[in-house]
Amino acid sequence: MNLHVIDIAIILAFLATSVIVGYWVSHRAAKSTKNYFLGGNVLPWWVLGVSNASGMFDVAGTMLLVYWMFIYGLKSIWIPWMWPVFNQIFLMVYLSGWLRRSGVTTGAEWIKFRFGDNKGAQLSHIIVVVFALVGVISFFTYGFKGIGKFATEFLPWQLSGDPIQNANLYALILMGLTAFYVVKGGMFSVVITEVLQFALLSIASVAIGIIAMNTIAPDAIKAAIPAGWDNIFFGWQTGLDWSKTVPAANMKILEDGSSLFGLLFLMYLSKGILVSAAGPAPNYDMQRVLSTRNARDACKMSAVVNVVLNVPRYFMVAGLTILALVLYKTQINAMGTAMDFEKILPDALFSQVPTGLLGITVAGLLAAFMSNFAATVNAAPPYIVNDIYRRFINPNASEKTCVRLSIASSLAIVVIGICIGWFITSINNVVGWITSALWGGYAASNLIKWYWWRFNGYGYFWGMMTGILSALILPFLLPAELQAAWQANPALPQLLRDFLTLPTALVCFPVILGISLVGCFAGSLLSKAEDDEVLMNFYKKTRPWGFWGPVLKKVQAADPSFKPNPDFFRDMFNIVVGIVWQTSLVAMPIYFVIREYQRAEIALGIVTVTSVTLYITWFRHLNKAYPDSELAAAKEAVPAE
To answer: Is 44 helix (H, G, I), strand (E, B) or coil?
Structure first.
């Protein structure tokens, strides 16, 4: 494929603009590590929300969404629950506020706030740093494969005769361009360029949706899809039969382990609730929360992500999917089982989007990659500088030294991520391991830390240690041949055999979670509780609901005016309403693009009702949950630079 010279000019102009703007604002970061890591806590909440959404609107993820929608239709809106996408609802409703109240810079610093500074807390501190770096490198690898596959379809130069190495070289070049301003500029460069990039991407997304609507007739869509494709609901199985249109899609459903879609959904839902209630992982999402001005803004920032990300993104996803379904089906069938469904997005773009708009769209998707890459890279230095160098090596290091070390550590993460990404072949495999195995190792310790007073640093450390080791080992101890043999064993109960049809990493999730829970409870109950002073300080400042009775009594003994958090049932109600709201925001643009207007109106009606409900039960309550007196006290407590 070769782009028109106009498209190439647009792409190159955009890349140059992003680098120049990012570098231009980078001088702000050199003032202090607080500026470098958190933008000085002066960026508006809505700007951080757009920035966070831009970081999530990545090329690799969008390629997956198009491939999932092509094969699974409207049922594909449930598949991103594997992340889970509704963690943003938990953050919006209460967890962002709880986290931001701490006033720390990183997730590892939060550990000291929660567990103190004894040996157990120090071990927990170290294990969070390890997890954060493993997570950053994993997301880096995921982005590396996505941008490489995308770039080879559009950029005209053959850098290598080997297609895989050609993709890797393109990824290397694009990451190098982005690293030029991210490494030097920190959070200021990341956020400013992400807002600009998201504006461009949103324009391109809506334009693609409109092109698809004007190009593809509803009858043509009906003729190209199997029965049930346009139905958001499902039974125990997918109910989709592609044998008459795209037979390779049936093979892909089997390969994905998604035949029993109802069981897959139940696993995603249960896993998602546990992971969401554990709070944000120590990555760019957490960094955006900690970068807000105060706890109230942190909650509002997470709310913005849901609207800003989903509506324009799914205009693009739906548009490219129906273009591929109707106009690219012949080429897909010609490839047979060799078809790489992850390349549907670039193939559909190139064959159907006109010159000029194609350049803008490709530039927008490159912007999405740059946003995600920038956010990922910028999340790593705080853990290396604040949580290793400053804490264990040189506590008295100057701000200038720490900023320089931040730049060096960013470069080191880039190099390590590229080296690992060079040998990975599938985006989907990386996503499966991150969302199931790695999150399984994270969930138990980080869930319990919010809600149970007796959980201590040793429990956290052993829960995380056993979870991470299990995530790194167990998926590789269950090869496909062994899993297939167990599926075929008639001596096993049918439900267990059904369970073994799921992707390997998801099969391992409950085992990893169970091992991690044993580590959590054994580590906590075989060692003493944290000091009262540490627990009381955490409880008074964070004000979580949960099993905090003994600590509450001690706090009220010292301060009879203290009131416990009464919002558990309100928060649970808002989470349910919020998940329905978020899902409707996804479904509405899809139904609009495929011209199922009646269903689009139903989705819009649900969005309206849930929006009004959340305004009354959540938004108006923020002022009471986070009063001005608390925000003023927190601002005064921040030391001057």
So the answer is: coil
Count how many domains the chain has. 1
User: Hey, what are 312's tokens?
Assistant: 């324009």
pLDDT in tens, 506-521: 888 899 999 999 999 9
Question: Do the domain assignments include residue 584?
Answer: no
pLDDT tens digits, 418-427: 777 776 666 6
Task: Pinpoint the alpha helices (H) of 25-79.
Answer: 33-38, 45-56, 59-72
- Residue 259: CB atoms within 10 A of its CB come to 17
**Chain-centre distance for alpha carbon 454:** 30
pTM of the entire predicted model: 0.85
**What is the Rg, in whole angstroms, of the alpha carbon atoms belonging to the chain?**
24
Query: How far is it, in rounded angstroms, from Cα 79 to Cα 402?
Result: 41
562 and 539 in contact (C-beta within 8 Å)? Answer: no
| Residue 319 resides in a domain | yes
The CA distance from 584 to 203, in Å, is: 21
What the block records as the tokens of 534 is 């540490």
Long-range contacts of 477-481 (CB under 8 A, 24+ apart): 478/504, 478/507, 478/508, 480/504
> In this structure, what CATH number is given to the domain that contains residue 230?
1.20.1730.10
**Contact at 8 Å (CB) between 221 and 333?**
no
Please, what is the Cα angle at 66 between 61 and 71, to 5 degrees? 125
